[in-house]
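Researcher: Going back to the complex we discussed earlier. I've cleaned up the inputs and rechecked each line, so this should be the final set. Can you rerun the prediction on the complete assembly and write out the structure?
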Amino acid sequence: MQLFIGAVVNMLFLSSMYILVALGFALLFSIMELLHVAHGVIYMVSGYICSFFLTKLGLNQWLAFLLTVLIVSCFGPFLERFCFRPFFRDFDKMLLVGVAISAIVQTTVVLAKGYQFEALPPFVTGIIKWGPITVSLERLVTFLIGGALLLVLVLFINKSKIGLQMQAVAQDLEGALLQGIDVHRVSAIACVIACGLAAVAGGLMGAYLGLGAFMGDYVFTKCLILVVLGGIGSMSGLFLAGLIIGALDAFLPIFLSGSATEALSMGILICILLLRPRGLLGRELA
Amino acid sequence: MKKRWLIVAAVVIVLALLPLFISSPYVIHILNLTFLYIVAATSFRTIVISGQFPLGHGAFMGIGAYASAMAAKWLGLSPWISIPFGTAVACAVGIVIGLPFARLRAVYYAMVSLFFNMGIVQVIHSLGRWSGGYSGLTGIPTLLGFSKTPYYFCFLFLCLLSILVLYRFEHSRIGITWKAIAQSYLIAWSVGINERFYRVFAVAIGCFFAGLVGALYAHYNGVIGTATFSFMATFMLLMFCVIGGMRSFLGPIIGTSVLVLVPEIFRSLKQFSPYLAAGIMIFVVFFLPQGLVSLPGLMLRKMGKRHAP
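Model: Rerun complete. Updated structure for the full complex:
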């Protein structure tokens, strides 16, 4: 029972973080048909920026975190304007630009920091005991921040004018253009959101898992899995896929060893996609 | 047409005579790897022209390499038998995987094959002692001993042969059918083309050559690890193709040569070489939309304009 509750807590925690990173990725995927390879690298570099503010400038931890999120989000419009807008909806070229960006950033981080792992100090310490349940406070805070942000974003995308414009562009580009929606402005805003979310997750997970120059690759893989499994362009699908993948990652290691877990979850994933090629709740892509 | 064949013949003769003038084993090693990657990139493009985006191509190199290396190491087979065995295994897995995957189209095919690549890497890891796990498989029997020069001729010959075979495929009736399917599968259906058969056929051909490259690499290097066959390796093949030019048969060949050889020329800047590759990528993407293949034509046109009255 104890084990089971621990796994459920872990599942919720992992799911919220996966969904947080993948949401930005999914927005870019559905609006620009962009396979954003550099997303993992942005996540990685924001962990390092946070660590720079902490150790070199000696700022308060939460201040450093907020500053990181702000700076990385401001990077979004530049990315959109100079790297993605010239190749709007050109799959290979945007992929290539992404690979180039991630090569540059990753090499810079390796040159500056080496291959060593680094650790951010935890945001909060201590545990909460509630009946048979014991939860570390850090995980709880991370989960709460993630959950609150997700709630705000869901409201933003479903209620605000810009959010509705994003959905329109994702559903039908020509239709959206005919209605006078500025597609590039919408994609720039999506870029800001994507970079900001990656930065939030990078700061929080950097404190939890430690920093490494290649930590982004893992997260990129997870984003891709979530987006494709949930179905491109479907928000509820993304959440469902996040819960499934979080559950697989939390429960399978109890029974199996590391690489067998990964192999099995890939196998399950491929089977689901072969049965439902458009993802769990997705629609047919033209 | 005649002129083109003369150029090809000249290049082949120069390449065949090159080892006489190069004594450094390191340079020969780099050239050997270039030949292998040229075959891999060209076979990648063969699948692409059939309208499928094979982001799992690296996995088939891995399957060929590991099947051949494990057969040679644990069953004691000679590399001359285990290399065809590894190639056959890669081709068979390609067909088995290609049949259900032929249901998928466009982005979905690309994504599922990418997941297949990641899954295969984990399967190889989880085989434990038999595959060497995370630390890689060592002590694989070599094909032609430890000197690099014999491999040069062997790989040059196989590379030319593979390119010729893939060229003939692309310019045969089958290649035209592939291109028809890529353009519109609905129209292809309406004229009675068996879409699934031709798509699986393209995957089988591509995986055959990918497996061959992997198996040769295993018995050339003597050591293999899964990093060589991860999805980053697949992205590298994609880079070779796009930088050279996806539209042209010469594209992957030129792209591979440039991206493998140019960073080696600036070898003194070892840890900065990713910057160089990224620089080439950005230059090509922004200024040469058709890839490096279109560079001579563009330059000729520019010069022609300048001389025109």
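Model: Worth noting: Residues 2-218 of chain A form one domain.
Researcher: Good, that matches what I expected from the previous run.
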